[in-house]
TrEMBL record:
One of its GO terms (biological process) is proteolysis. It comes from Luteibacter rhizovicinus. It holds the Pfam family SH3_6. Belongs to the peptidase C40 family. PROSITE patterns: NLPC_P60 (PS51935). SUPFAM superfamilies: Cysteine proteinases. This is Cell wall-associated NlpC family hydrolase.
């Protein structure tokens, strides 16, 4: 979950390996955008799909994906099995969840105006965590997110930054919950406005008004209900409806799943209009008392959704990824966007694959097939691995992940949510191009610093394939 906000320096490599093509420094042109090797044609999914042999061949079938998800859930410590929590949780377990996330910041922080955040403000935030108020035994309560909402490292809306003037990365922002995400409520802030929740992929603070509480049976009956609809578009919205404001123009992000409401007569209006041009979804809503209930909502049929998760094919990986092309980078899914790890996990989730949330967890997950790199791996070994990458492979460097979409003249290309790219020009000077969005770039020219390429800093390659 990192954008490599520092200036990433990149250079074109002259590769001379046994069995690999020699890639001249001037092999990749630089267009007016400054993004080396990328013309307009490369910014369409069909360019990359058209280069594949058997692009619609299934990479992993439904049974294989289910087995993979079960393995990740069982082996990955960053995942949480909230369905099978005990009736009471000991103080130390809840306290450890919160203390791991909500440590007192040690470095200087700045507000959006570039002014230092005073110690008194940090004191107030830490007091609101209320660790001492955790009882000896905690009875977990269940609930569900009713709208897209931020997961925060601390119980506060305050945005803080590591450097004055750099207001893109809010150091208190962690991730996001989507409508319908199940969760367990483990603690409440001192001011009562924030809940510390544990979801299947993340534990953090969420504003109370975005959560509806219900029994575990009610929550999981909803998540298990069939038939359902899977959102395959980037972020479609339900139709506007003044009759039911709670489900009007609700954003539904890629990979989220909602049961269909099959109880309503098809010839009768839903929320003031005929449902015949829409799918009738069931969405969670929060009552005035905070309780969980459900209401029908209309998602137009011309919005991207499917009766099930999409088949995991290389064509679908590319097409789904390109639906986010140009979306603004958002640390922890801020700015109504997503970050690098959220981007790849949302793409794969539309095909039914459930991945850990953060880059660091994804790259080393014991539930995923990966090749890890250490200081013992030579430059030649890393280049050989880079040239052998296939569509859909995930390439990790410290704090960043990229998705492979194909090759041109033997060079791998990636799509990723990234702050910028840097490379060495033909005359040897370094050039940095600010991107700050989901972008398509070649992999090999990208530089991590003035001496090392991205390939030199690869930590892991994850393969969502046999």
């Amino acid at each position: 979950m990192h954008t490599l906000r520092r200036s990433l320096l990149a250079a074109t490599l002259a590769l001379a390996m046994v069995g690999a093509p020699v890639l001249a420094r001037d092999a990749l042109p630089v267009p007016p955008s400054g993004v080396m090797g990328i013309a307009d044609a490369q910014l369409t999914p069909e360019f990359w799909v058209g280069r594949l042999t058997a692009p619609d061949a299934v990479v992993l079938d439904t049974a294989a994906i289910a087995a993979l998800n079960a393995k990740v859930a069982r082996l990955d410590p960053s995942m949480h099995d909230i369905r099978h929590l005990p009736a009471t949780l000991p103080h130390d377990r809840v306290g450890a969840w919160i203390a791991k996330l909500s440590k007192r910041p040690s470095g200087a922080l700045f507000d959006a105006a570039g002014k230092p955040v005073p110690s008194s403000a940090i004191d107030a935030v830490m007091d609101n965590v209320a660790l001492a108020a955790i009882p000896a035994e905690v009875s977990p309560r269940y609930g569900m997110a009713v709208r897209r909402t931020a997961l925060r490292g601390y119980p506060t809306d305050a945005r803080v930054f590591s450097h004055a003037g750099d207001t893109d990365i809010d150091r208190f922002q962690e991730s996001t919950l989507f409508p319908g995400d199940p969760l367990v409520i483990a603690h409440t802030s001192r001011d009562g406005r924030w809940l510390f929740v544990v979801s299947p992929r993340y534990a953090a603070w969420v504003v109370r008004e975005d959560v509806a509480e219900g029994s575990a049976d009610k929550v999981f009956a909803y998540t298990d209900r069939t038939p359902y609809r899977v959102v395959t578009g980037a972020k479609p919205r339900t139709v506007f409806t003044p009759e039911a404001p709670a489900v009007s123009e609700v954003q539904l992000d890629m990979g989220t799943r909602f049961p269909l409401d099959t109880s309503l007569p098809p010839d009768q209006p839903v929320n003031g209009q005929s449902p015949y041009t829409s799918c009738v979804l069931t969405l969670p809503v929060r009552g005035a008392d905070g309780s969980l209930s459900f209401q029908p909502a209309l998602l137009q049929r011309n919005q991207d959704s499917a009766a099930d998760y999409l088949p995991l094919t290389r064509a679908n990986v590319i097409r789904q990824a390109f639906k986010f092309l140009g979306e603004r980078y958002g640390w922890g899914h801020a700015y109504n966007g997503r970050d690098c790890s959220g981007f790849v996990s949302d793409v794969y989730r539309s095909m039914g694959v459930q991945m850990p949330r953060n880059t660091s967890d994804q790259s080393i997950s014991p539930g995923l097939d990966h090749r890890r790199f250490t200081d013992a791996d030579s430059h030649d070994a890393r280049e050989k691995a880079a040239l052998a990458l296939e569509v859909g492979d995930l390439v990790y460097i410290p704090g960043h992940v990229m998705m492979v979409i194909g090759k041109i003249d033997g060079q791998p290309y990636v799509i990723h949510d990234v702050g910028g790219m840097s490379y060495r020009t033909a005359d040897g000077t370094m050039r940095h191009v600010k991107l700050n969005e989901v972008s398509v770039t070649p992999l090999l020219p990208m530089m991590f610093n003035d001496r090392q390429t991205f390939v030199d800093r690869m930590t892991s390659i994850v393969r969502i394939r046999p």
